Amino acid sequence: MVKKRILVLGGGFAGVDCTRKLEHYFQSNYDVEITLVSDDNFLLFTPMLPQVASGTIMPRHIVMPLRSLCEKARIYESAVRDIDPIGKHVTLEGTPEKRGVRIHYDYLIIALGSETNFFGLKNVEKHSFTMKTLADALSLRNRIIDMLEQAENEINEEIKQRLLTFVVVGGGFAGIETAGEINDFLHDALNYYHNIKTDDINVVIIEATSGILPGFNKKLIEYAHNKLKKNGVKILLDTVVSDFDGGNVTINKSTNTTSMKSETIISSHTLVWAAGITPVEIIKNSVFKTKKGQIITNEFLEVENFSGIFAIGDCSRFSDTINKNYPPTAQLAEAHAKLAAYNIKQMINGNDKKKFEYNWKGQSAIIGKRSGIADVMGGKITGFLAWLIWINYYLSKMPNFEKRLRVWLDWNIDLFFRRDISRYGFKRNILKEYQELDEVDDVW
Ligand SMILES: Cc1cc2nc3c(=O)[nH]c(=O)nc-3n(C[C@H](O)[C@H](O)[C@H](O)COP(=O)(O)OP(=O)(O)OC[C@H]3O[C@@H](n4cnc5c(N)ncnc54)[C@H](O)[C@@H]3O)c2cc1C
User: Fold this and answer.
1) Does ligand 1 have an atom closer than 6 angstroms to the CB of 13?
2) Domain of 161: which CATH number?
3) Tens digits of per-residue pLDDT, 119-136?
4) Is the CB of residue 12 below 6 angstroms from any atom belonging to ligand 1?
5) Is residue 53 part of a domain?
């Protein structure tokens, strides 16, 4: 019998879950070959990234090697360069050290996720921090510590204020959780910085729409909003960022219902852009039919006009005739993954495929100071209990016991000790960052 070749592209939540499910279905079937391709050799647990940025969790603890999660599949750590659905093959990037490879398939699962969407704002893209990768979280942590170190000895109040102003753009999961974590870290770190007062710290969230955390119940949103404000975070709604030159953030009102000037400047060196995602270039440039960059699928998660090719997770959406589009989340990616694997099993066995049905399990978000909001089984929970639900839910989602234990220990250790303010040994664009403080001052 000719072997059936299943190829999964992307080692995120969708790709890994799908590969694991396929391994389970075909564990003793040697006529099925499963291959997983991803440009990193690990699964990154993104919901915990903001806590890496604040130093609560060690970076290594939120990544799990693909080889430990998917033991049957052949794994390629490589970037996908091209998908050819007519010739039924995928080409992997070649570099001087890495041989370019062409992989043929019978069934393909595209789970390439998304990248940050800057909406064409080139300056923002150039100067801002993002929150998508482990390197992003570490760069941001380093930046926050750098700003504290500079501000501690700064005598010019204007410069000090700019150093201690941190702007987070985007009121979704990533933006809110990042702002909450930054705020906690900054306040806790003040034990070490005696010349910086609580009032000197300024964390601002900028959101283009009229509310934060879309998709949550109104009461929960109100709680999160008020709690963040109480913790000292400013929230500017109906506001968009139009420019950032590395020292000044230009903002505009997205509606003209208020009296705010058409353009206002916030002085800050640190802008975190968590305002939107867009699928990766390779998908936008593919022959597949897309909307907002996402591949359009039918109810079986199969790509329109290409039988045997499935698109799942952040990079996919249903066609407009199917009223089943939900915000891109890890939970949705997981549900997609399960169905795509099941439908491939059905196709290989000559059985009927199943349509997608989403069994939404609720959602939760953390907002800083061991507080959160949770919407579970109809219950609306806030505060410490919601924070506990969040940590337990996400711990249970970590597929690796060792990492689960390490994260749990990190959280507990954090309860009893001061923040670690040592900066990791790399700096981002060091010359550019210190342009303003380039002149040498006589300190003594
Ligand atoms: C900071 C942050 C916090 C979040 N918090 C939550 C939360 O609390 N709850 C929640 O449900 N969701 C949350 N999300 C969203 C969640 O992470 C995504 O919805 C989920 O990761 C989508 O899974 P995916 O597999 O589709 O994409 P991804 O997880 O992005 O995986 C895509 C994979 O494809 C790989 N890849 C991309 N391009 C290529 C290429 N050319 N070649 C090879 N490999 C490639 C990537 O390296 C990656 O491994 C958060 C996201 C962020 C960034």
Assistant:
1) yes
2) 3.50.50.100
3) 999 999 999 999 999 999
4) yes
5) no
Q: Is 331 in the pocket of ligand 1 (CB under 6 A)?
A: yes
How do residues 397-441 score in pLDDT, each as one tens digit? 998 899 999 999 999 998 898 888 988 866 555 545 444 445 555
Q: Which of 129, 329, 338, 366 to mutate to test the pocket of ligand 1 (most atoms within 8 A of CB)?
A: 329
Query: Do 315 and 373 share a structural domain?
Result: no
Are 186 and 231 members of one domain?
A: yes
CB of 329 closer than 6 angstroms to any ligand 1 atom: yes
- CATH assignment of the domain containing 97: 3.50.50.60
Adjacent-strand bridge partners of 52: none
Closest-CA residue to 48 (of 391, 405, 401): 391
C-alpha 362/C-alpha 379 separation (Å) is 9
Q: Is residue 165 part of a domain?
A: yes
Q: State if residue 40 touches ligand 1 by the CB under 6 angstroms criterion.
A: yes
Starting from the edge strand earliest in sequence, which strands make up the sheet with 290-291, in order? 290-291, 294-297, 316-318
Residue written as tokens 């981002």? 428
* pTM to 2 decimal places: 0.91
Indicate the pairing of strand 89-92 with strand 101-104. Answer: antiparallel
Contact partners, residue 121, CB within 8 Å, separation at least 6: 241, 242, 243, 244
What's the domain range around 207? Answer: 122-275+363-433
**Is pLDDT above 80 for 92?**
yes
